[in-house]
Write a structure and sequence with these properties.
heterohexamer, A: alpha+beta, four-stranded antiparallel beta sheet, 4 helices, B: alpha+beta, six-stranded mixed beta sheet, elongated
Chain lengths: 242, 261, 261, 242, 242, 261
């Protein structure tokens, strides 16, 4: 977290710079099945973030050394397009995207019924086309919908959400300014039906009380976004192929 | 659509070619339906989305401040790259840029660069010290055939709507990037023995070589490229060159129309 | 120790968990024996060696002169990286940094960085021109379980004893690096269905997900990370958070004691 | 193309700076079989360009994923030696050489009887030792001779030639200055016996009429260079091993 | 060799700056079995150098193309830790470490009874934690002890030692200043029982007479260090597991 | 020549060694025929081609302007690299530089550098600001044995004929690069149990370790390297050192003669 002390992020009435309440998420829209070449796909806009996910497989896992005898492996690539950020990003993986890919894959392996596909691989491609804070969470949400769109069986969805702290106040779903000048960020991946957590990162400074409040906000948001996810899938199957 | 094995597919395509027909019912010089949308991405200074049949590509433009090359102190620079990442299809693998993606980026780059549509002098801020570098990145999200034309179209459409972010870099007021001309690419694939326009994924799978032609506003050639295994005759080239002329005029109109919106 | 095949090992670990027991006889929240040694390497400006059970790691601190970022002209920088090289165990292979080593380095880095224990302003030499870059490199020599905690400990211990080599760089007198606070990481692994502290190599082999918690001097969270396949409940988190508080206080004392020597 | 307008490239009598006529190629010499370690090889000097090609195979294609069940693949590496250009080139592939390698391989696959060697690979190594404009064409010519020298069956040779435009005039076989300051370049690979085209690139600005004239020049040059190629192979087999 | 002429490296009484005699090595200590994860390991301190070696295998050699039908291959990685030198080294291999790894592997293959393990691989990892001139020799010594600790059969040990030339005088075991400002360095790997040489590099300027004297010093040092190696292994097996 | 399988080849080579004979009829210390040609490449500032038996290598010299290292403000720099690309033989594969090619380049580099034949001070243009960097690139086109000696010879011959392109860089008049001395490498391979000079490809295939000796004009050692599996005795070294003395004198004469032409 940047943690600059001198940027005002809350209005005098306690509301946020963009008018949101402390526990209010940015607008979210989801469309499933938008990439004809993929076996499952989704586009999620969340604030000004745009994330696309494509799913391929299950397919044979190769090279063989990545194969697991008892289950499928999920191979996630989280990638930011060069034009997705204010300063252009050089194409190719970097350390940040490799870490996010790893923990996202492990989160998805926690909900996909991987035991049904031993020795196989499911490819999940997450492409961030526009970034405005919170892209890893938006990517997880998109990946969940794309997996469902591909017909991959899961014991629950994962909803990606984040809360954080700005001006010593816990708020839901940091936008770009809040992320740059805030004091903490707590991105999580929540299973909406079981209430379990499959993805967890955090940085900054949070007391236990603040953590608990931030987590409460996250669970609230997960419920809201989950409805939008379900709705997108319903539209996809009612409306036929895109 | 049933995925035919290549040998059967080739036979089927040859049979259709005898009747001058195509798998999806199109005429030989008929393109698929497509949509063009511009300025669709936050953070890109210019952007475009092209959907051409089942092919989906995005292009985004970014700017950076550079020092000019010593031998061209008043000229900015252009860079155009394409990424064919695993998202685009089952056959694409992760790893360093493939020869396919390098070729794609370079063919699109040459078409734009050689048309002269960007006046490199117009990118000069302080001669010898500061010029703009323009970077177009093309991202293929779904390959269902003829990504070259989709990428070429997305690139020039993104460029034509780009805003130079001078304020963010503290070098003046934001302004539209000056672009003269709209170079357009038309690609032909040998399918069932003869060339067709705007091949689908199945036609590419069962087809042979491709020829990519980029034409400028006056119908001049700015870039040519033959890809994949196969040969062609001068007579065949003459035929597709004529088709390309018509096709490029049509697409150029659509770019102009999208800009007016 | 006999290397059990994972399935048998998992069964054994589940059976032990029913009795709240562990393979090596430890209590659920009991760490292995460990030793900490600092200033043990010629050429490193600060160094530490941690032996935790059969896990052996070294951390070394180096400094370099840099020009500060234009938007933070009075701030130095911190970089923390971990190398999981083939020396560390039979399963580690040569090649570019693995996702495992990248995660390890980044989780340790965030814990130290976000605790604010290094005042970046204190690394300024000439505003806008010259600042110190602090680089912590962690080297895992033997992985017998829970390398995260060993690496986190080695990193902060090395930092806390580091001498800024100002004389060698001709920018003043050598002096101790100012460090406020001692962020400590405590890692928990799900073994036999429940979380345990400081898992051994066997427990990791037959276990599930890990949670890494870094706490500052006041017990605040500075970094969290869940790794590997598995889910957890908020109630489980509440339990391990309490254990982490105790564990971190203990380890912080040992770091302080080593410093006094 | 550089396209600087202020450099004079044609003399007042319409001839070129180096005295060549508009449709005249630079001097070309070819020697086959010059690399004892290779199964086939050739050195081509074309103006000041020096290109060497070596052929190995057919051999088993590995890794297996590059294998084609019905034919051989041709694996071309076009490489410029670090000392081949005015400014030293860092060793290792770059984007330009990868593109040229790809389209050169595809051109050669169009004439080699690849169906005779299913699942195998033929390696063609093109090394540019000195570069003076037109190296991709010189490399194609060298590769054709090296393939023939290796006894690989082909339905025709490929001759690499280029025409271009300088001072609004179409000319054959641009040299370095003409390439740097010219207006268009049209490198092609011509099958001398069938008159077909296996390699085609072009950049710059050409009207259809200019294209047709440039292509006419290219066909004329292909005939001349083809004779030199045949002659080199004849000398090779008459003269025995180099 | 740096070879600066103006730095004094010998005292007026002919002794060296650190008080050593011309044919005297720096203090050496060796401990075997210090890395629980490895099958064999050793730490050698030699002057201020600290080198650690770990041995894994014999194990199946893969990828298959590195396999040798008649023997094991030894896969050595010599690596300098980023903090091992005065200026930090960027992690990852460089040309120097690749060359040292290659010739060290070849030296070890000369003494390990590799014929006993056809088609297999023995991994030897050499990590330099602190460098003060002569690290390649210290690494060879550490690797020998680690191989013995792993129970890998060898027909002899290899002792890494170096002599050099400073101020036109041959001396044994250059330290950092002597290495930086000296005139020659002759690192070798000696088989203490047979008197053969398995590792040899040299750079600088040496007449044949100087070479012979430097080599005489090296053999003398090899005997001394060999005793310390044997002693470390004896302590390891007397004292049980570390 | 029939390609013998290595085991049979080794037996044959051992049998020949008993009679002090070699596969191609040469004497033990006899080199193959070779030719040296210099200044053979456009664009290289110095160049040489060496054909040694069936081995063919080129070396080319280029110059660049650099800022000197702060601690050596009046010294230029030398870089020598070798590329063992797939062109050189069936066994060579594409990819990043192999350990073989790195060793080759570094051994040639050390021989030239340590002989002191380039006065680094003579490469200074403006102290502390501008010096010449000399870069020798060696390109092996055909490996039929003993590429080390061929590369060493090509490198020094290219250097000795190099012209410093000062005019192109606008720092004075073109002039010959000053070179004092002609370091020469002689390589020995253990074949059939004893060392021979200038091994052929077959001898290398059925042989053991190599020793590379670089000698300067006064017969001093400037570089030694043992490569491949095998050991040798001090007595063996003494013998080949004597042969190397003679060999290097001979080759040095040929370099001088080529220069006069």
């Amino acid at each position: 977290m940047g943690g600059y002390g001198d940027v005002q992020l809350l209005n005098d009435d306690g509301s946020r710079l963009d008018g949101r309440k402390l526990d209010e998420i940015r607008p979210v829209t989801i469309e499933a099945g938008i990439l004809p070449a993929a076996e499952g796909s989704a586009m999620v806009t969340h604030g000004l973030n745009v994330a696309v996910a494509a799913v391929y497989g299950p397919m044979e896992a190769h090279p063989r050394k990545i194969q697991r005898q008892d289950r499928a492996v999920i191979d996630v690539r989280y990638n930011m397009a060069p034009f997705s950020t204010s300063d252009r990003i050089r194409p190719g993986f970097n350390r940040r995207s490799r870490e996010i890919s790893k923990v996202t894959a492990e989160a998805l392996e926690s909900v996909v019924l991987v035991e049904r596909y031993p020795r196989s691989k499911i490819r999940v491609e997450i492409e961030i086309l526009a970034a405005e804070a919170g892209t890893r969470c938006v990517g997880i949400t998109a990946a969940s919908v794309a997996l469902a769109d591909a017909g991959i069986p899961m014991r629950d969805m994962i909803v990606g959400v984040a809360s954080g702290k700005i001006e010593d106040t816990v708020v839901l779903d940091l936008d770009k300014a809040e992320d740059n000048y805030g004091q903490a960020d707590l991105p999580v991946g929540i299973l909406p039906n079981t209430g379990e957590i499959a993805f967890l990162q955090m940085d900054g400074d949070l007391s236990l009380e603040e953590y608990n409040l931030a987590m409460e906000y996250n669970f609230k948001a997960a419920k809201e976004i989950h409805e939008i996810m379900v709705d997108a899938l319903r539209r996809r199957y009612d409306g036929g192929e895109a | 659509m049933v995925e035919l094995v290549p040998t059967l597919l080739r036979q089927e395509l040859a049979r259709l070619a005898e009747d001058d027909a195509r798998l999806d019912g199109r005429g030989r010089w008929e393109g698929r339906e497509f949509t063009l949308e511009t300025n669709c991405l936050y953070n890109a200074e210019g952007s475009a989305k092209v959907v051409m049949g089942g092919t989906v590509v995005y292009a985004g433009v970014k700017f950076e401040l550079r020092t000019p090359w010593p031998d061209r102190p008043t000229q900015g620079s252009l860079m155009c790259g394409a990424e064919l990442r695993p998202v685009a299809g089952r056959k694409y693998e992760p790893g360093p840029p493939s020869p396919q993606s390098i070729e794609l980026g370079r063919v699109v780059d040459r078409g734009i660069r050689e048309s002269g549509c960007i006046d490199m002098e117009s990118l000069c801020i302080v001669p010898g010290e500061k010029v703009w570098g323009v970077m177009i990145d093309i991202h293929v999200l779904s390959d269902r055939g003829n990504i070259f034309d989709a990428c070429g179209l997305a690139a020039i459409a993104a460029l034509r709507t780009a805003i130079v972010p001078a304020e963010r870099f503290d070098v003046g007021d934001d302004h539209k990037l000056q672009i003269k001309g709209t170079p357009i690419m038309a690609s032909f694939t040998r399918v069932g023995g003869r060339f067709v326009l705007d091949a689908s994924e199945q036609e590419e799978l069962g087809g042979d070589e491709r020829i990519h032609i980029t034409l400028g506003d006056e119908g001049h050639l700015h870039s040519l490229q033959k890809g994949l295994r196969g040969v062609f005759t001068p007579a065949e080239f003459a035929e597709i060159f004529e088709v390309a002329q018509t096709r490029c005029v049509e697409l150029r109109k659509i770019v102009a129309k999208e800009e007016e919106n």
